[in-house]
Write a structure and sequence with these properties.
five-stranded parallel sheet; Rossmann fold; alpha+beta; Jelly Rolls; 13 helices; seven-stranded antiparallel sheet
Length: 432
Amino acid sequence: MHIRSLLLFCVLALVFIFQVSKNYAAENITTEDINELFSEEEYPSDMDTLEEFIQSYYLLLESNAYLKQYKFLNLDKNQFLGDKKALKPFYKKLLELRNALRQTVTIYQIGDSHIQSGYFSGTARTSLQKYFGNAGRGLVFPLRLAGTNQPDDYKISASGSFSRLNSERGLSGYALKMADGLCLEITTNNFFRGDNSFNKLSLLTSLPGMEAKVEFASNETEKTAEKIGNYYYSSVSWRTEVSKVKLTLTGEPTALYGIYLEKEQPGLLYHSCGINGAGFYNLLEQQILFEQIGLLKPDLIVISLGTNDAQGTFRSEVFTKNLNTFMHKLRYFNPETPVLFTLPPDSNKRGKHNNDLDKMDKIIIDYAQDNQCAWWNLNEVMGGNSSIQKWRKQQMSAKDLLHFTPKGYMLQGYLFYQAFIKSYKSFSEQAE
């Protein structure tokens, strides 16, 4: 079939879809719009952008149907801003992934207690992987062994000697010193209704690295180990996916910074790092954090900080300096990686809406506009200033009107997912 005839057929199909979906926002798509999607000079001929537009449209119908039950949300504002240029390289990689021209696309998210609990990122990860493919659970860490809270979709227990390194924060937010013979038992589950089984396990440690011995059902393994800068990266892979392994570490004492659980199949990897109490202001001196983020070679970095910066006494000039210093260090090790800021959710301070959040949001948006970053205004999407009171009435906010319940964080994760798909759909509709 001639390509123009095929496109015309698809356009007619889209018109039909739009007519039967009149409960949702109408799309003004014409034959000229479709013909102008992507030039052959910029995108390979086997990248089906029209199919991406159609499928992402269906996803938005599904997410809208779910989210419309929450009347206080501002769904019209739920989209990424500044992304048309800032995230274009990332969107292109997603398109390549969907068209089997790329094996993996990697996201790294860093945040505070809103992220450490795992409900936001877990919901977003599972939802996105259903569309872009599941390349694995990604970054995990024995946070409970470090004396803090941990996401519910995995467990890590230990036998042997270990201790928390309070002065170091690696790409997982924490670090543990491990002694020879330490045994870690790692178990994943499908808490967020996603498949967290894996057939590849990797470690990021200090030098000299320990040798990792993994016990599992199949004895067909492949091991790799290499020094990357000041760190030691080792991995073990096998054929059959499992949800539980025992990992014995032998060798000289070393620091553990991260464990990656992956599936050796095409898909999206969504790493998340949450640190209770973290802000731009208190992560500035963690040089190894910025170094190790660079080792991941992420295709997108999501920054979900700011809530703690706006607590206490807030001074705009101090926050601006902290933000610029943080981003300078991040960019040094990740010079080409697109960045997306998620602005902090609404919260209270001293018994009323925290007006310093508005000042901080403006500073972040100004930085993003000046430095080609994208942003997502969660405060606006969740209902605007003082909307946390409405979330509290729905049992989605904690009593302190600063944190959220698991249900609240999961709703935020799903809102992020919808904004993600909406923005990706816009990219697949038209080229710059």
